From TrEMBL:
A molecular-function term among this protein's GO annotations: pyridoxal phosphate binding
Organism name: Catellatospora coxensis
Pfam families named in the record: MOSC, MOSC_N
Organismal lineage: Bacteria, Bacillati, Actinomycetota, Actinomycetes, Micromonosporales
Name recorded for this polypeptide: Molybdenum cofactor sulfurase
Cited InterPro entries: MoCF_Sase_C, MOCOS_middle, MOSC_domain, Pyrv_Knase-like_insert_dom_sf
Domain MOSC as annotated: residue spans: 66-232
Transmembrane segments: none
């Protein structure tokens, strides 16, 4: 046993703030509903914190949050207004917010994931980065699906798990595949966290612009807050 599941987060809409869960169903694609939706520009690319072939930097997305009501995402705007994803006015509301024509789009043939289905982070790595920065680091900056609490350990622990298997609770089995690349999104202001340009520089110092790891699902099931996490070779 390496630790316990200390945080479980899902992001209904790519590059928007998400929701904390006490339990979740994990399938081959990852946590059910995670990044199932995205904001799509008129050029067909999806809004993100960075620009690539599939994605385009789109300002203002971190000012929005999303949660699910059943299978429907509900968006919260800075004004406090909530708009359901099945409301015909959601596209106009999003377009007004980001300053260009966009639509809220469910995933079809093109994946909304940047790198992989599940992002895993440990408190050991957070403490390691905090030592570089000279103070604690809030895990929300890294948008991990799963945060594993590893008491009294500091260091890039999950880097030693590459190629190995993690069992979460009684059901879910993951295989750790590779380090998680990082970009400027980790610096961004979100909720009560201010912009902090030191974060990405510290990640580069601590771990060559990667932080946490990606994992694929080998056995589906349900995970719950507080589940034990066991590492197997």
């Amino acid at each position: 046993m390496v630790g316990t599941l200390a945080a479980l987060r899902r992001f209904p809409v790519k590059s928007l703030l998400g929701e904390s869960l006490t339990e979740a169903v994990v399938q081959e694609r990852g946590i059910t509903g995670d990044r199932r939706w995205a904001v799509r520009g008129a050029d067909g690319r999806f809004g993100s914190g960075k620009s690539t072939r599939r994605f385009r930097q789109m300002d203002g997305l971190f000012q929005l949050a999303a949660r699910y009501d059943g299978a429907v995402p509900v968006l919260r705007f800075p004004s406090g207004k909530h708009v359901r994803g099945d409301d015909p006015g959601v596209h106009a509301a999003l377009s007004s917010h980001v300053g260009e024509p966009v639509t809220l789009t469910a995933e079809e043939d093109v994946s909304h994931f940047d790198e992989g289905p599940l992002h895993v982070l440990t408190t050991a790595s957070l403490r390691h980065l905090g030592a570089v920065l000279g103070g604690p680091v809030d895990p929300r900056r890294f948008r991990a699906n799963l945060v594993i609490d590893v008491p009294a350990v500091s260091g890039r622990l999950e880097r030693g798990w590459l190629g190995q298997v993690l069992q979460l609770g009684d059901e879910v089995v993951l295989r750790v595949t590779r380090p998680m690349p990082r970009c400027v999104m980790v610096n961004n202001a979100q909720e009560d966290l201010p912009y902090d340009g030191r974060i990405l520089r510290a990640v580069a110092t601590a771990d060559e612009l990667t932080f946490g790891v990606l994992a694929h699902v080998e056995r589906e099931g349900t995970v719950r807050f507080g589940d034990p996490v066991v590492r197997r070779g």
